[in-house]
Task: inverse folding
């Protein structure tokens, strides 16, 4: 059993270095893993599966080629790419996971999340999240012409950039009691998430039980990932031209 976890790649045409690192990662460390879990924000944004960009096609080709070698691929949507649907997932051979998703890794209970549900101090974001994660809202939105959808997303992205500058670092991090509640609800698993771009290994003591929380790093051209082998604790690694080896 060997599983790799990545998140927050924010792939887009403007970051060719990250894209190259991702393709190298898929042909490198990911090949020898049994499973690759992508915990959201694989793409900088996703306007719908009908937005057939060269980038989206290149990524799905590379993912499908990896799946062909025997690695199972899982995708848990992030706040940037939650509109990624079954059609793209089928082509890329991704299995879409709910957020959160409880999995078994060699007999250990591991809870996976993008992480944005834990940032409960940001009430404005949470109410926005509830709106856009509503299936009815999504269906209506996806019925709009692609060009319109892209415009709306562009507007939301610039609003979010402005809002971020006014928010404190604390507001944009996870809320400790939201983490504890989630761990309790799932019988004290190990938690792995991304989103905050603050890679770390935390330990939470909840009701006397000790739960690890791994926060994944965001990507540049250094391809950070978490590797979990059956034998030992997870290890945070990097792969790519600028990784310190
Ligand atoms: Mn995110």
Result:
């Amino acid at each position: 059993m060997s599983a790799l976890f990545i998140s927050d790649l924010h792939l887009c045409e403007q970051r060719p270095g990250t894209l190259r690192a991702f393709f190298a990662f898929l042909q490198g460390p990911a090949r020898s893993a049994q499973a690759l879990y992508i915990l959201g924000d694989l793409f900088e944004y996703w306007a719908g599966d009908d937005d057939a960009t060269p980038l989206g096609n290149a990524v799905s080709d590379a993912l499908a080629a990896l799946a062909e070698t025997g690695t199972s691929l899982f995708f848990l949507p992030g706040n940037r790419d939650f509109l990624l649907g079954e059609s793209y997932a089928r082509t890329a051979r991704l299995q879409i996971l709910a957020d959160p998703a409880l999995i078994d890794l060699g007999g250990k209970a591991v809870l996976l999340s993008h992480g944005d549900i834990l940032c409960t101090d940001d009430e404005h974001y949470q109410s926005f999240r509830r709106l856009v994660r509503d299936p009815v809202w999504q269906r209506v939105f996806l019925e709009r012409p692609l060009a319109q959808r892209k415009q709306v997303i562009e507007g939301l992205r610039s609003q979010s950039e402005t809002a971020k500058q006014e928010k404190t670092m604390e507001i944009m991090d996870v809320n400790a009691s939201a983490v504890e509640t989630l761990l309790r609800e799932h019988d004290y698993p190990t938690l792995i998430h991304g989103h905050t771009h603050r890679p770390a290994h935390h330990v939470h003591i909840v009701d006397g039980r000790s739960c690890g929380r791994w926060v994944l790093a965001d990507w540049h051209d250094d391809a950070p990932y978490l590797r979990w082998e059956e034998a030992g604790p997870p290890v945070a690694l990097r792969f790519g031209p600028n990784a310190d080896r």
